[in-house]
Amino acid sequence: MSQVIGTTRLAYSRVWHQVSAKAPHAGLTTKKAAVAAAAAAAATTNTTTPTPLSATTADTDVTPPSLGRLASRIAVLLMGKHKPTFDPSTDCGDYVVVTDCAALHTTGHKKWRKTYYRHNTRPGSLRAVTMDVLMEKHGGAEVLRKAVSGMLPKNRLRDRRLARLKAFEGGAHPYADNIVRFGGVPVGDRGWEAVVESIRAADKERL
């Protein structure tokens, strides 16, 4: 899907991203040593490009992305703030597919102490539920959706952006053919960086 604004059809095309909520992630880990190593690597490469959402690693010091870090990165992709064509009044974000939400990672005691409130404006109608109860009743996808919703701007575009978040409890989903690929390898799978480098090298030789 894409939007057409004048002659900028390609600039506003949407990309599908995928991330697993239980796979270790170098850019969204909560381990201080791994965060420092990732920052040092970014400094040596002299780049400000954020770590891809689906980048994974086998390092034992790297943890799965925590709820807050994952939600904030997803919100950036849904808004399109990672694109040079970003405009606050334009819905130019991408699609995000999140799998394994049943194993959503939280730090500390948030899973049992975080409380969600709702009220229908009638006296005595205040209802409260903790995160663990909400996950048992509606799954981790609902918890992630609430976290992302709270990080999106409260305007007319929030519902549209939130609709592009596809969260699943397990690893299976019907959007496998939509995920961005390089040389047939989905971004985030083992060896996708090597495929990208080979494509770039081939383009340099061709040019």
From TrEMBL:
Metal-binding as UniProt keyword: no
An MF annotation (GO) of this entry: structural constituent of ribosome
Sequence segments annotated as region (Disordered): 42-64
Compositional bias (Low complexity): 42-60
GO biological process: negative regulation of translation; translation
Keywords: Ribonucleoprotein, Ribosomal protein
Entry keyword annotation includes Transmembrane helix: no
Gene Ontology cellular component list: mitochondrial large ribosomal subunit
InterPro entries hit by this protein: Ribosomal_uL13, Ribosomal_uL13_bac-type, Ribosomal_uL13_sf
PANTHER family documented for this protein: LARGE RIBOSOMAL SUBUNIT PROTEIN UL13M (PTHR11545:SF2), RIBOSOMAL PROTEIN L13 (PTHR11545)
HAMAP family membership: Ribosomal_uL13 (MF_01366)
Family, as annotated: Belongs to the universal ribosomal protein uL13 family.
Name this polypeptide is given: 50S ribosomal L13
Species for this entry: Cordyceps militaris
